[in-house]
Amino acid sequence: MSQVETILRAATQLFAALGYDGTTTRQIAEAAGLNIATVNYHVGGKRELYLAVMKRAHEAERAMLERAVADTEGMGLADRVHLIADRYLDFYVDNPEVSALWLHRWLLDASDVTELEREYIRPLLTLVGEATGADSEMAMWTVVWCVNGFVRGGILDDKGVRRGADDRAALRRFRAYLHEVLHRALNLPGVPP
Questions:
Q1: What positions does the DNA-binding region cover (predicted)?
Q2: Range of the domain at 163
Q3: Which among 15, 27, 39, 159 has the fewest CB atoms less than 10 Å away?
Q4: Are 61 and 108 in contact (CB under 8 A)?
Q5: Is residue 36, in this structure, part of any structural domain at all?
Q6: Does the residue 42 lie in any domain?
Q7: Cα separation values, 106 from 11, 64, 100, 119, 135, Å
Q8: Among residues 164, 62, 55, 148, which one has the least CA distance to residue 102?
């Protein structure tokens, strides 16, 4: 693994765990097993590192959504919406650190880095809106909020035990509920699967 990859992986894990404001370049260097000068040489300072981490997260999410949209060709509206929502959920289940990165931002972490939402989120909302014909940005935000909440916090079962994305029954139950929410929010035809 290259030093840049080592640095980016360490930075991703620390920014996901502690947020931008709670992470230092020294912590990243130590986690990568390097000195600060090497980190700065390869990636730059903390801001540049954060931007590189967020860009990688965005590129992975964008690639997933572009594949999902391409896979919906020829499908009816309800099936398109479900497939895209399912792929979105699966992406965040498989990449919980990306969820953590965005949740920190939504809690006003890295508030001096203002361009990410405009550059990364807005185009993805447009992509999904155009693919589904769904004219409800709030429905898309509902998916974002629900998926991230489930991935990070899970749900409580009837005994009060927290069940997360690693619990197949909880994931299946959440997925069905997400489909139902989308059916209602977008007034989709038919019954959710």
A1: 24-43
A2: 54-186
A3: 159
A4: no
A5: no
A6: no
A7: 19, 22, 10, 15, 24
A8: 148
Instruction: Please write the tens of the pLDDT for every residue from 122-137.
Output: 899 889 988 887 667 8
* Nearest 10 degrees: Cα torsion 114, 134, 186, 117: -10
Task: Please say whether the beta carbons of 17 and 100 come within 8 A.
Answer: yes
* 48, 4 contact by CB (below 8 A): no
Whether residue 108 lies inside any domain: the answer is: yes
Distance, CA of 42 to CA of 130 (rounded, Å): 38
Q: How many domains does the chain have?
A: 1
Q: Is 122 exposed, middle or buried (0-12, 13-18, 19+ CB in 10 A)?
A: exposed
Comparing C-alpha atoms, which of 146, 135, 129 is closest to residue 180? 146
* Beta-carbon count within 10 A of 85 CB: 23
pLDDT (average), residues 112-121: 89
* Residue 171 tokens, joined: 């994931």
Residue 86: strand, helix, or coil: helix
Residue matched to tokens 């991935």: 151
Domain of residue 162, CATH code: 1.10.357
Kindly calculate the radius of gyration of the chain based on its CA atoms and give it in whole angstroms: 18
Q: Which residues of 166-189 are buried (b: 16+ CB within 10 A; e: fewer)?
A: ebeebbeebbeebbebbbebbebe
The answer to whether 15 and 101 have CB atoms below 8 angstroms apart is: yes
